[in-house]
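Need the bound structure for calcium ion, inputs here:
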Amino acid sequence: MIRKFVLGLLFFSLCAVSAMAQRPAIERVEPPHWWIGFNQTQVQLLVHGPNIGNTRVNFDYPGVDLVRMVKTENPNYLFVYLNITDEAEPGTITLHFDDGRRTLRYDYEIKARLGSDGRHQGFDSSDVIYLLMPDRFANGDPTIDNIPGMIEGVDMDEPFARKGGDIQGILDNLDYIKDLGMTAIWLNPIFENDMPYNYAIGAGFYHGYAATDMYRVDRRFGSNEDFRTLVNTSQEMGMKVIMDKIHNHVGTHHWFIKDLPSADWIHDQEVYGNTSFRTNTIMDPYASVSDFNSTVRAWFVDEMPDLDQRNPLVADYLIQNTLWWIEEFGIDGIRMDTHAYPYPEYMAEWTRIVLDEYPTFNIVGEVWMPDVPTTAWWQFDSRISGDYNSHLPSVTDFPLFNAIARGLNEDPGWESGLTRIYYTLGQDFLYTDPLLNVIFVDNHDLTRFADIVNRDPGKFKMGLSLIYTTRGIPQIFYGTEIMMDQQGMWNDPGKRHPFPGGWPGDEINAFTHEGRVQLGEELGLPVAEMHEFVRTLTHWRNGAEVIHNGRLRHFIPEENIYVYFRYNEDARVMVILNGQDETQQLDMSRFIELTEGFTTGTDVSTGREVPLHGSISLSPLESLILEME
Ligand SMILES: [Ca+2]
Ligand SMILES: [Ca+2]
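Answer from helper R.:
Posting the output first, comments after.
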C-alpha cells in the first residue's frame, strides 16, 4: 500500500512542470479556525488543494505575523505557520496565496477564547465514568443511519456493521445516565470513519478508531453542533465529557492518507509490518531496535496507517487538533487510545502542552500493560522511568483488572484468589498517584464482566464493590449495570451489543425499570437488582469523600476473605469480600487497629447492620461495604 503512495508522490514530482501551469486552488484549511491567547502562540495552518504548494502567502493583520511557510514533496500542500500575539483582536485574516501570476484569497477566522468556567473540568477520584460506544448505545435519529455519499450504512443483522446509534440517542438517555449517578461520560471516538468494510475479516469501523477526518463528527452520529449540544447539556446536568482520541493512526481513507503530504507522514508498512503489540519494548532496558520498531513504527492493523510523530508537521498537526477540540467544545478530559504506540517522546510533549494550556483538564492514557511496573512507568513524574517523564496524570489500570478477573475465578492460594488483588494493590508504591488510575471490571475491548464471572451475581457484585471502594477512578461500561453479556459471541461485536431499548421497535426497554424486570425474567438474571445495586453504589460514592481520597489499609486475605478500610479524619468504611462460595465466619478481632472506637457497620446497598467486634457470618460470595459508626 505504501509503495502505491510513494509511486503516487513520484508521479506528482514528474508532473511538477505541467503542474506549475495548473491553477492553484484551496480545498481545505485545518484547523478550520483558531483562537487568540494560547500560551503556544504559533499555529500551523495545513492548506490543501491542487498546486497550493506553488504559492506564497501574505497578509496584513495587526498582532499576527507570518512565521514561516513549509512545502513538502507534494505540491498540494502548504503549511503556513502564524504567530498570533495577545495584541491581535478577534476577526478575519484575509490570506493571499500568490503563485506569481494570480492571487487566491482565503478568509481565516481567529476568535476570542471562552475560558474554562464550567468547561475543561478534568476528572479525578471523585468521579464515576460511564463509557459508551456511540454506535451501540441508542439510535435517536434513524434519518441519519445512512448518509448519501458515505460508504457504510446500517445493517442490524451483521455484527461488524453499524447499528445506527448516534448523539441524539445519547442525549435522549442522559437522564438515565444521570439517574445512575454517573458524573462523567467517556464516548468511544466520534470522528468521521468513512471507511470501506470487509465484514468477512471483521473490518467494520463503527467503533470509530480509524478516523478519515479529524475535524468532523461522523455524520452518522450527528453534526459538530450536535456534539456541542451533547457536551453543553451533559455539563449543565453535572456530567463531564471525556473524548476518545487517537494519535497513533488514522484510517486508510483519511483524506490526507489518500494524498500524502510526504512519504514520511506515516511509517512504511512494507518495512515495519503490523505491530507486535509488545509495548513493553518501550521501557525494556534490553529491547532490540527491531523489536521497538515492531511496536512503535509498525501499523496497528492494515486499515490504520501509522503516523510518524517525529515529523514535526505531523506532531504540530496532532497537538493543534487536540487543542481545537478542547477549546471548540469545552470537553473535560481525553482518553488517549493506544497511548503506548506513538513515539513516547511525542506523547509526553503532547500531554505537557495540553495540560499547560488547560491546567484543570485531565488525560487518561490507554496503557494496556500486563503488570504494575510497566503501567506505573507511564504515570507522570514516575520514579521508575529514568529520564522519561510522560506527564500523563491517569493510566488505565489493567493490572488491577487482570487481578479481579482472575482472582474471582481461581482457587485461593498463596498468591491466587482474592490474594491476587491484595498483592496487586500492594505494589501501588510504584505509582506516582494511584488515586488517578482509571479502574474497571470491563470495557469495550474486554470480555463482558457478566461473562468473566459466568453470570454469577455474587462475583458480579464483588467486582463492582471493589472498583467502587478501592483507590482510583471507577469506569463502568454501558450495559454492565444491567449485567449485559455477550450472548455467546466471542468477538468485539459481542462486547458491544446494542443497549436494549435504544432502538425503535426494541421489545424490551432496559432504560426503564419495567424493562429491566422483563429482561431479567427472560434471561433468568437479577438485571433490575444489579441496576439498583450500581445506582445505589454510585450515588453513595459520589458523596463519600473518604472513598475519593481517604487512606487505604488492607489485611492479608485469610480463607479467601479480603478486608480493607478507607478512612480519613471524618469517616471510615470497612469493606469485606468473601471470595468463597460458602458461608464463612469472620473473626473481627484482627481489625481492631481500625475498628477501635466504632461499634456498628451498615452495609451501603442492603442496610444490613453488623457488629464490628466479635464474629460475623458471611453468606457465600457476600460483599459488604460498611459505613462505620
Ligand atoms: Ca441513527
Ligand atoms: Ca505507532
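Comments: The first strand starts at residue 28 and ends at 30. Residues 129-546 form a domain with the TIM Barrel fold (CATH 3.20.20.80).
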